[in-house]
Amino acid sequence: MNNYHQYDIIVVGAGGAGLMSALYASKKASTAVLSKLYPTRSHTGTAQGGVGAALGNIEEDHPEWHTFDTVKGSDYLGDQDAIEFMCSKAVPIVYELEHMGLPFSRTPDGTIAQRPFGGHTNNITGMPVPRACYSADRTGHMILQTLYQQCIKQNVRFYDEFQVLDVLIENGVTAGVVAIELATGELHVFHAKAVIFATGGHGRVWEITSNAYTYSGDGVAITLRRGIPAEDMEFFQFHPTGIYKMGILITEGVRGEGGVLINDEGERFMNTYAPTVKDLASRDIVSRAMYLEMRDGRGINGKRYMYLDMRPETVNKYAAEDGRKRPDGSPYIVTGEEMLSKLPDIVDFARTYLGVDPVTQPMPVQPTAHYAMGGIPTDMYGRVVIDAENTVLPGMYAAGEVGCVSAHGANRLGTNSLLDILVFGKYAGLDAVEYSHKTGFETLPAEPLEFTQQQLEELRSSKGDERASDIGEEMKSVMNDYVGVFRTEDGMSKAVEKVRQLKERFKQVQLGDTSRIFNTELISNWELGNLLDLAEVTAVSALARKESRGAHAREDFPKRDDENWMSHTLVWMRDGKVELDYKPVVITKFEPMERVY
Ligand SMILES: Cc1cc2nc3c(=O)[nH]c(=O)nc-3n(C[C@H](O)[C@H](O)[C@H](O)COP(=O)(O)OP(=O)(O)OC[C@H]3O[C@@H](n4cnc5c(N)ncnc54)[C@H](O)[C@@H]3O)c2cc1C
Question: Does residue 574 have a pLDDT over 70?
Answer without folding.
Answer: yes
